[in-house]
Amino acid sequence: MNNILKMKNIKKSYSGVEVLHGVDLELNEGEVLALVGENGAGKSTMMKILMGITKPDSGTIVLFDKKVNIPNPARALHMGIAMIHQELYPIPEMTIAENLFLGREFSKIGFVNSKKQERETIQWLRKMGIDILPSRKMKDLSISETQMVEIAKALSYGSKILIMDEPTSAITESEIMKLFDAIKILKSEGIGIIYISHKLDELPQIADRVEVLRDGNLITVENMSDISKQDIIRHMVNREINEIYPTCKNRIGEVVLEVKNLKRKGEFEDISFDLRKGEKLGIAGLMGAGRTEIVSTLFGDRKPDSGEIYIFGEKAKINKPSQGIKRRMAFVTEDRKLLGLNLMGTTKDNIVTCIEKRESFLGFLNDRKTSAIADKMIKQLDIKVMSRSQLVENLSGGNQQKVVLAKWLLTNPDIIIFDEPTRGIDVGAKTEIYNLMNELVMEGKAVIVISSEMPELIGIADRIIVMSQGRLSGILNKDEFSQEKIMHMAAHI
Amino acid sequence: MKSNKGTIRSKIFNRNFIRQTGIVWAFIVLSGVMALSQPAFLTIPNLTNILKQISINGILAVGMTIVLISGGIDLSVGSIVAVSCVTAAYFGLAENPYPLIVPFIAAILAGAFLGAINGFGIAYLGFAPFIMTLAMLTMARGLILLLTDSRPLFNLSRPFINISNKFFLGLPNLVWYFLIILIFGYVLLKRTVFGKWIYAVGGNEQAARLSGINVRGVKWLIYSICGALAGLAGLLLASRITSGNPRVGDGYELDAIAAAVIGGVSMAGGSGSIIGTLFGVLILGVIQNGFDILGLSTYYQQIMKGIVILLAVFIDIRARKNKSKSLS
């Protein structure tokens, strides 16, 4: 295989602190190199340097056997380097064709030749193996389709190196398969792909080699076939994580939540299940199956059209989040930045949001008390901050998630709902969250977990409910767990 | 990553404080320039005049700050001032002696009522703040012009005129009212649970709602408070100009917004402080005073005001960009 990229001995410091201590990275034609490491290991910094967003302090970049400087992202694109971001930012009101050719429209004397653009777009999309009308607007596409368009766009620029940042974090299993097929097509075209992902289980399916970074150092580069998941984890965290999914001896008791025939038009119907004390109930299903809709209805973010909810045997009418909270429920939402955190606030502000009133006196804040409480939670959950006054927007994903958790734990809930709690979080932090869930159920609380990662659900849940297209497809007990069964139920009713 | 003095540092050097200290320096430099170039500036009468001039706008700016932090805006305060100016004057006419408490209650209630309508439209009917308060701007103005047939009320009682103009400890009462409202605003935003909720709603409304905060209630109350403060401002204005004039207040909302923005309040919501706004008010006052001393027409002042606003926001944007660069 021909080598297309050699980054050698890359060093980078921010404000006097060295974050990359001389890291190497090599990429060959037609291969997928998985780049793994905990948050803060240096992956994004390396990619920012490759993308021309920032410059290395020292080290060399050799592109197609020529030493180069990459001054800015526009030049990087012309040099053949493109990135598919974790958070996609297409222009919603524009069509696929318009987005694809943004900045290099086919035009004569200022008028855009839409027909030609659309024809070209179809070619590129077809090359990826997808069949979407180029006249569709970006805002009407699913995340998976948007992603495919982004990849087609990169292809159309003649990119030889594609960086994919957590590409499978927001798409369903079948869409992941489509993505992998597309990646295989890219490989056959000779394109090299740097694949950043926390989902280590996926790597054997798609990656040829894997490079592990830790604390700004290159730890190892191996062929995918020569290394096991355990070894990768060990390299990433430098400690044995004996159980990725820690077990616990939770005792499952009485029914705390009962849902009967819950229905919301267009979202879900005929939903009935129960939740027991000390239990971890998983909810599986494809995206769009209605999982988040159901739990947010339980919490009070939405009103059901019909059906009943019983909490500790008592019929409950929960129409607002504050009522859900009063009923001792907590909702750790799916998108922490969008729904869970006030990014303009400090760590302390976010942690004490729900209990501020409780700790107040005649409406006045009790700063001393809330500061002490915040510090206690920071210590308890091991949240890595400089101080409670640090703004949450500057924390890593894992620490942000812990802040959201801290906020909810302070309300002393009996039922805690987790919606995709470990999305975009590295292995070390994930295990901390699993341990936390175990602690909660050992204390006798009940936990509902929504997750799109089947290994995760199977690893942590006591029972799993499978949703499919707004209906309950099945309920599995622990001894019945299998990925095939869940997949089957998720895809059919 | 940063050294251990990070703890104290991060407490002091959070976003608001940086903006505030910048504002303070700007104010000091500005005042210094004025004092040195114009001997008339640093005299007691002139300084007292500045304080008198800024008090009305200052009270409006406090209300506006609260609304802006919540992520909203209130374009109707100028018109509400007009309504309450006339209302207060009506209850302060020399020929109809009401106890002084009456115009106070009437003016503040009138303002609160109009503000509550704003709040209802925004919080419960879902109108965008810009639209709702814009509509209120025109409706309230129309209403008061209609009721007064566009004619001001004169001959107010001496006690009523004293409300703003009598001196107390060397300063006109008007200034003391401003100070009280400043303290009120500061305590509300920084020392109460409600204040925390205002910042939470402005920072991320969805997250605030999901945390159990009554977002609608908070919004409704904020606009009511802003209206009430405009009501108070109207009364003080009536006393100051010794008439109930339905044409006053034109453009007052822009001055209030300008003061808040210069003081570091973000139009996006979620950040800002009363102290910052205070300096914004002071800077505007010093500039206005400077132009008056120099005898420049108010049109020059308007141009200058616009430039100052752009300058302040520009500096703020640069400061934020630099901050995020160093942290990434």
Provide the descriptors you would attach to this structure in a database record.
heterodimer, A: 17 helices, B: 328 residues, ABC transporter involved in vitamin B12 uptake, BtuC, 75% helix, globular
Task: Provide a descriptive summary of the structure in words.
The complex is a heterodimer of chains A (493) and B (328). The longest helix of chain A is centred in the middle third of the chain and has 16 residues, at 173-188. Chain A is 33% helix and 26% strand. Chain A has helices spanning 43-50, 73-79, 96-100, 114-127, 143-156, 173-188, 203-206, 229-237, 291-299, 321-326, 336-340, 347-352, 367-380, 397-409, 427-442, 454-460, 483-491; strands spanning 3-14, 17-28, 32-36, 58-63, 66-68, 81-84, 107-108, 111-112, 161-165, 192-196, 209-214, 217-223, 255-264, 268-276, 280-285, 306-311, 314-315, 329-332, 415-419, 446-450, 463-468, 471-477. The mean pLDDT of chain A is 88. The relative contact order of chain A is 0.11. In chain A, a hairpin with a 2-residue loop joins strand 11 and strand 12 (217-223). Chain B is mainly α and 328 residues long. In chain B, strands 1-2 form a two-stranded antiparallel ribbon. The radius of gyration of chain B is 20 Å and the shape is globular. The model of chain B is unreliable at 1-8 (pLDDT under 50). Chain A binds chain B through residues 14-15, 17, 299, 301, 320-322, 324-325, 331, 333, 338-346, 349, 353-354, 356-357, 360, 363-365, 386-387, 389-391, 394, 407, and chain B through 1-2, 6-7, 10-11, 14-15, 191-197, 199-200, 202-204, 206-214, 270-271, 326-328.
